[in-house]
Amino acid sequence: MEYLHIIVVLTIALGIYIFFDLLLHPKKSLKKRLIFYLFLSYMVLLLDSYFFVIYISPAGVEWVDPQLKPFDHLEVIISLANSPYSGVNLTEWIVRFVSLTALPFVPLGFFLGWYFKIMRVMKVLVLVVSTTFAIQCTQHLVRCLGLMPLVKFQVDSIILNTIGGLVGYGVYRLGRKIRGAWANEGPV
């Protein structure tokens, strides 16, 4: 069995990019550069959390049906909790599922406002949905190729990731509004 650790490859690529960026553009603003490196590091961790380890399988290609029914996972959790033999705490599992799916995209929404200066909610929505959709399609392709046996395309993830990105953008806008209010107050 051969494993390819995505985070190692992406971290090396990030290090090479930073080296060449510092070498070729020495006059760039250090603050903007560090914020961008922070964003790239976040993207490396995000991709690693979705793709973990790619297993190179001798099994070959197989088609896996995508999960296209919204909130299918929540229905499974609820049915498990309603089982007389289950010890599943329904609230705990729903909170865990929603937070593990939505929270990784909160920084993306924040970065879209903070670093990329996107001020329109619709633009943020389109970018977050596009990013999530691309990740889900890539996961599904990798699953069908037999490289990651435990993942597949899920509409639940697209919905919850989008909510997470919008929450992050909302946090950015709220912080900006509070900062503006403090700036307008002046000294006490």
From TrEMBL:
InterPro entries for the chain: Teicoplanin_resist-assoc, VanZ-like
Source domain of life: Bacteria
Key word Iron-sulfur present: no
Keywords: Membrane, Transmembrane, Transmembrane helix
Residue ranges of the TM segments: 6-24, 36-56, 93-112, 124-142, 154-172
Domain VanZ-like: 35-174
Protein name: VanZ family protein
